[in-house]
Amino acid sequence: MLRVGLTGNIATGKSHVSMKFAEMGAHVIEADRIVHELLACRAETKNKILGAFGDGILSGDGLIDRKVLGKIVFRDYKKRLLLNSLVHPAVGEEIQRRISEMEKMFSGGIVIVEAALIVETGSEGNYHRLIVVSCDPALQVSRLMDRDNLPFEEAKARINSQMPIEEKLKFAHYTIDTSGTLRQTDRQVEYVYRDLLALETGTGASGK
């Protein structure tokens, strides 16, 4: 099974791209969904975060409010590193467990792991290929403002808190630019998927 990482910064369109890959037949694992499950269902992870950040991050139903937690860590680099150290080892283990399960179930195919911090965590080497999604910076800010109902300055600060996309692009075997129409984005995904299929079946592939 061909293992492919899919990454990019906030509000660049990773979710749409991964959805399109899934529609075309790829097995998609979403790191963000795993985080949701860990915070909701795994007491060990939840308790570590509460121990570090306090009960003030809990919502009325006793779950961790990710928006509240997000505001804390996006404003404080050290707290962001702390949160990552508490969450991402468990996320990485779960991703590898799911990949192993898929490899037992399917004799071939493509598994795509959508995760924002592949390069930051140094896990790009876990994948045969890496796809980096990017878009026009002004469009990225606008998307984030609309999606999370944020003022311009806060949206810009969240984007600036992440690794520059230029650094991630250095690791890319493929890049997908979502600045255009959905159809233009989908065409890029279709091209990459055909290339990945050729690589998986051993008939050759382009890329880095």
Shape summary: globular
* H/E element sequence: EHEHHHHEEHHHEH
* Helix count, DSSP H or I runs of 4 or more residues: 9
Distance between the termini: 19 Å
Key terms for this structure?
single chain, 208 residues, alpha/beta, Rossmann fold, five-stranded parallel beta sheet, 9 helices, 5 strands, 12% strand, globular, disordered C terminus
Overall description:
The protein is α/β, with parallel strands linked by helices and 208 residues long. It has one domain (2-200): Rossmann fold (3-Layer(aba) Sandwich), CATH 3.40.50.300. The protein is 56% helix and 12% strand. It has 9 helices and 5 strands; from the N terminus they run E-H-E-H-H-H-H-E-E-H-H-H-E-H. The chain has helices at residues 14-24, 31-41, 43-53, 66-74, 77-105, 137-148, 152-160, 165-169, 182-200, and strands spanning 2-8, 27-30, 110-114, 129-134, 174-177. It has a 5-stranded parallel sheet, with helices on both faces. The chain is globular, with a radius of gyration of 18 Å.
